[in-house]
Write a structure and sequence with these properties.
- With about 140 residues, the protein is of the alpha+beta class.
- It has two helices and eleven strands.
- The strands form three sheets. Strands 1, 2, 3, 6, 9, 10 and 11 form a seven-stranded mixed β-sheet that branches. Strands 4-5 form a two-stranded antiparallel ribbon. Strands 7-8 form a two-stranded antiparallel sheet.
- β7 (about 105) and β8 (about 110) form a beta hairpin.
- The radius of gyration is 17 Å and the shape is elongated.
């Protein structure tokens, strides 16, 4: 069993800037095709109950109006995603660490096993467009 996640960067419709994203981790025991199917189905609506995470302050955008900390242009989110998510992944693993993840084996109780993200985690990224009204619209790719 491994941790996988859905990630929803929120793009301001007017500026194209991402200042926050939504994150939700899941513990799945499945092959890559099944994980992809599950995460893509959940990506359509599960963002409504996901955790809100700010872009770390070390990401900055500069313009003639000044410098904005904790922001990236939408096209750069994927490029920097692993470093943007680093603290979020660590926090998610810690939140699952206290959960009992064991059962009964043939030789008796199994030792609890920590749920962790693998070295190359499986993510599905779905961009959300934030309208001036605050409404979030998922940008689902036709498939």
């Amino acid at each position: 069993m491994e941790l996988v996640a859905n990630i929803w960067p929120i793009i301001d419709q007017m500026t194209g800037v991402v200042q926050r994203f939504l994150f939700r981790a899941y513990a799945l025991e499945a092959n890559d095709e099944e994980i992809s199917t599950v995460l893509n189905i959940l990506a359509r609506s599960d963002y409504r109950t996901a955790q809100v995470v700010k872009i770390p302050d070390n990401y900055k955008l500069s313009s003639e109006h000044g410098t904005m900390s904790g922001a990236v242009e939408a096209p750069l989110f994927n490029q920097y995603m692993h470093s943007i998510l680093e603290d979020t992944l660590i926090a998610a693993e810690k939140s699952f660490a206290n959960m009992n993840n064991y059962g009964i084996g043939v030789d008796g109780p199994l030792i609890p096993e920590a749920l962790t993200f693998p070295a190359e985690p499986y993510f599905v990224t779905t961009y959300l467009i934030e309208l001036p009204s605050g409404e979030l619209i998922p940008h689902i790719k036709a498939g």
